[in-house]
Amino acid sequence: MNLLSELLSQSPQPSPTKKQRRGIEIKSQREIAIMREAAQIVATVLKEISEQVKPGMTTGELDAYAEKRIREMGAVPSLKGYQGFPATLCTSINNEAVHGIPSPTRVIESGDVLKVDTCAYYQGFHGDSCVAIAVGEVSPEAAKLIRVTEEALYIGIEQVKAGNYLMDIAGAVQDHVEANGFSIIEDLTGHGVGRNIHEDPSVFFFRTRQMPNVKLRAGMTITLEPIVSAGSKHTQLLPDGWTVVTADHSLAAQFEHTVLVTQDGCEILSDRMKV
Predict the structure, then answer these.
(1) Residue 78 lies in a domain
(2) Which one in 31, 140, 192, 260 has a CA-CA gap of 20 to 30 Å to 270?
């Protein structure tokens, strides 16, 4: 089950084009240029938040900052209002894997593993990215989890090029995560992105025959976002209808980039190093 797809597929996003209704969309050079701008807006916000977050701040403060910055750069927060989601960011702490709701009363503490995920809608296209942040002094387990999850993202990205398949990404990510004693959370996947936040294909990070093993083509834009648990791969949805937590309360981490497939490799559109 792809919870992200389930939650966002009913959201009031722009109507799909005829091209999208037929399946995976290949972006034009003009569309790629716009998506590059959208993704860099997201990268800028996440880089700035990563540099300023500290113990004692609230997730509500981060959310207000993110909305302000996205709008200053001429974009609109993609998440705010989708299916009633009230915020610009998803802020998920410790055993919260994804979709945590920011709050003015949720205080960030030293030792927390904070995941900050956001999307920006710019000139008809979305950019999407997430970063896991070690707040203050974290445990050795938390530090390893963050490191391995980020490594897994880039190991997956190394497999992105025209002619490869989604299973090439999935196998590389799964092997690295499991070799380090962690688990891929299978209930959540990456996805195509463009005119809508969620488009085909679903991008999975574990070996499976239950999802289409799509061949990558130049011009596809997808998100890679392995979500890794220090314990069980199983999750639960909290009563707020959004926050997904690990079933055994173990720590979770996530990193995500919007990636363009090219003929000989890929381009990380949301690369924070370019900001």
Answers:
(1) yes
(2) 140
Which of 52, 36, 21 minimizes the C-alpha distance to 129?
36
Note if the bond before 12 is cis, omega within 30 degrees: no
Q: Which two tokens stand for residue 184?
A: 């891929």
The number of domains in the chain is 1
Cβ-proximal residues to 181 (8 Å cutoff; 6+ apart), any chain: none
Q: Is 123 left (phi over 0), alpha (psi -120 to 50) or beta?
A: left
In one-letter notation, the amino acid at residue 52 is Q
Q: For the chain, what's the residue count?
A: 275
Pairing of strands 190-192, 221-224: antiparallel
Q: Which amino acid is at 136?
A: G
**Rounded distance between C-alpha atoms, residue 193 and residue 86, angstroms:** 21
What's the Cα-to-Cα distance from 63 to each of 27, 202, 247, rounded to whole Å? 30, 27, 26
Which CATH number fits the domain that encloses residue 126? 3.90.230.10
State how far the Cα of 71 lies from the Cα of 73, in Å rounded to an integer: 5
122-168 pLDDT per residue, tens: 999 999 999 999 999 999 999 999 999 999 999 999 999 999 999 99
Q: Quick check: is 107 in a domain?
A: yes
Rounded Cα–Cα distance for residues 263 and 43 (Å): 24
Measured distance CA(243)–CA(98) in Å, rounded: 6
List pLDDT tens digits, range 65-93: 999 999 999 999 999 998 889 999 999 99
Enclosing domain of residue 253: 23-274
What the block records as the tokens of 69 is 């910055």
